[in-house]
Design brief:
Radius of gyration: 32 Å
Oligomer: single chain
Shape: elongated
Largest sheet: 6 strands, antiparallel, barrel
Structural class: alpha+beta
Strand order of the largest sheet: 1-2-3-6-5-4
Number of strands: 21
């Protein structure tokens, strides 16, 4: 028994020594002595001029940006009761002192109500003033009781250059008042929607734009609004460095009409076109352009002598005039044609380059309002 007892004592002694030695080694190697102190902070120094400018721009602009949440009415199939459920979120910005808020049409499309949240935390029920789906623009209005936020500063998009700095403010994924930066990547881009209608003259940017940024402002380095973020190109559904914004020149032309008339009536020259028919017709002729299917009676197109298509007895469409350029800008589709005409105001004159019986002819046509 004594030898066994001695071995047990010896074993316990060895284990105890190993425990204390291991503990000492661990504390020494892991750098956790009892006298450990926080590291000394290395002074950063002043921010750069560019950083200070970005901070100042964000601080002065964020109060003009709003968070928009929408709801949709649904009916319970069992109780037949109607109730509202959350539909989505987006961004917007204060347009004027009258409480008008600008956002994307697709942010409020199909919604039964919209709540606008200001930067200071106040919430307001919004009223829909009007929309222009062709430009993805919607105008809302809120009755702000006091301390109306400053309207966003307006710039211009016609003078933009590829490479200049831009900043986007919005609410991506519900993360309110988020700032991202980048540059103008390209200009005059086109984007086709699910309904086949295209939005023209878009600004392309690499500033990170994600779901929830829609309707938020795109600003230049002077803090002026140059566009409204409207879409991204992304196979994964998140920012891939390719975002698009509706240019301010378009917004500044469309929004006042919506506020005044509750709708936007685009300018016209009085011709009727159709994308599906036009695509087949021009493809069969091996050209790019827009076929005039019908000339409206009493329109400026009729006064200018434009020729419409006709249908033979066997159902074959015989083309009339084909518009191939407007003031030197090529016309490759119906969407492009409508977008180019949309750049003009009633009373102005456009110079059409048309193809008539194989010959190119220049014809001036006056732009007019839709009746």
């Amino acid at each position: 028994m004594r030898p066994l007892f001695g071995r047990i004592i010896w074993f316990v002694f060895i284990i105890t020594i190993a425990y204390f030695a291991g503990t000492f080694y661990f504390r020494t190697v892991s750098g956790e002595p009892s006298s450990a102190q926080p590291r000394v902070v290395n002074p950063r120094g002043p921010l750069t001029t560019e950083e200070n400018n970005t901070i100042d721009l964000f601080e002065s602009s964020k109060q003009s940006v709003v968070f928009i949440s929408t709801k949709q009415q649904v009916r319970d199939i069992w109780t037949r009761n109607i109730f509202s459920v959350p539909r989505g979120t987006g961004s917007g910005f204060v347009w004027d002192d009258g409480g008008h808020i600008i956002t994307n049409y697709h942010v409020v499309e199909g919604a039964s109500e919209a709540i606008v949240k200001l930067e200071d935390g106040r919430d307001y029920q919004a009223k829909l003033v009007g929309v222009s789906p062709a430009h993805d623009i919607a105008v809302l209005r809120v009755d702000i009781d006091a301390k109306t936020p400053r309207p966003i500063s307006i710039g211009e998009s016609s003078t933009l250059r590829v490479g200049q700095s831009v900043l986007a403010i919005g609410n991506p994924f519900g993360l309110d008042w988020t700032l991202t930066t980048g540059v103008v990547s390209a200009l005059d881009r086109s984007l086709s929607g699910d309904d086949g209608q295209s939005i023209e003259h878009l600004i392309q940017t690499d500033a990170a734009i994600n779901p929830g940024n829609s309707g938020g402002p795109l600003l230049d380095s002077a803090g002026r609004l140059i566009g409204m973020n409207t879409a991204i190109y992304s196979p994964s559904g998140v920012s891939a460095g390719i975002g698009f914004a509706v240019p301010i020149d378009t917004i500044n032309r469309v929004v006042p009409q919506i506020i005044r008339y509750r709708k936007y009536s685009p300018p016209t020259i009085g011709v009727v076109t159709d994308q599906a028919i036009n695509q087949k017709l021009t493809a069969s002729m091996g050209i790019e352009g827009v076929a005039i299917l019908r000339v409206q009676p009493g329109s400026s197109a009729q006064r200018a002598g434009l020729l419409e298509a006709r249908i033979r007895k066997d159902g074959i469409i015989v083309p009339g005039d084909i518009i191939i350029a407007i003031d030197g800008k090529p016309v490759s589709s119906v969407g492009r044609f409508l977008a180019l005409i949309d750049d003009y105001r009633a009373g102005q004159t456009v110079h059409l380059l048309i193809l008539r019986h194989g010959n190119e002819i220049k014809i001036p046509v006056q732009v007019e309002n839709q009746s």
